[in-house]
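DM from R.C. (forwarded with permission)

"hey, sorry to bug you on a friday — could you get me a structure for this? deadline for the figure draft is monday and I only need the backbone to look sensible"
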Amino acid sequence: LLAGFSAYSNQIFFDCCRALQGIGPAFLLPNSIAILGRTYKPGRKKNMVFSLFGASAPGGFVLGAVFSSLLSQFAWWPWTYWIMGIACFALGIAGYFVIPHTRMPKRNASFSMLKQLDFAGSATGVTGLVLFNFAWNQGPVVGWETPYTYALLIVGIAFLVVFVLIEMKAEFPLLPFAALSSDSAFVLGCIGAGWASFGIWIFYTWLFMEESRGQSPLLSSAQFIPVAISGFCAAITTGFVLSHIPASVVMLFAMTAFTVGTILIATAPVNQIYWAQTFVSIIVMPWGMDMSFPAATIILSNSMPHEHQGLAASLVNTVLNLSTSIGLGF
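My reply, with the result:
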């Protein structure tokens, strides 16, 4: 709601509102997957539910793109944010009544809440990630010769090193390295590389359509509609095949889709028709998204104990969002 009212304010106020909007998904996604992870036992039903959860992303993306284009063209752009705020509020109220109650994990009463929440690890980890991410995105804007860009990058890396040292000694670590296997680390690496390429693809495809080809936002949104259909098909297929082939093989197909989709749009000539490489790229790319996300979530969820289901989702979510942003910075 406040992002819409930034029409009466300035860019800084708008940026702060957008940052607050990012906190919403950061809370929503890990908790949603944790609820699903605790509700369903490993098997075909859990695979399909996780896949359908992933399918909501391309569908929601297309819905948001079309309506924001319509509202910007025929009404006023703040209505994009106001309607989104109203919808989120209605879903929040509905969620209170619809989502079943889940028992809270037992905590050791002999330790303080700050210690059990690993406040030191949280502070150093978040600070390090924010500074590292900011430096890589600010460097290309103001130039790497600007002192504060590389200074913040160094400080960010230092905070991340301190975070690792704290986690190795913490009684209640925010990131229990013991719960992570080499397979889990490799899966997170795949997610990071794949979604970094997606961040680059989505940003530059829109610029390519609107700036290079001179299309309107509404026409560009219409050309992105196949993303929702392809993404849904990818999710259903992933939910089915995960019960028949290893998740690692699904991850291989996902990484291939990311690669092919990126190459197709990177080599598309400006004057080429939409139905050639651009359409094919838009069809292929959601298979990378909707195969990698469920596969990674299921691999981590199945490899972690019951009490760490939220952690598995948080790791995938954190790597996914950070890689999307840092990859674009690169």
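R.C.: lifesaver. The radius of gyration is 21 Å.
me: no worries. The chain has 13 helices and no strands.
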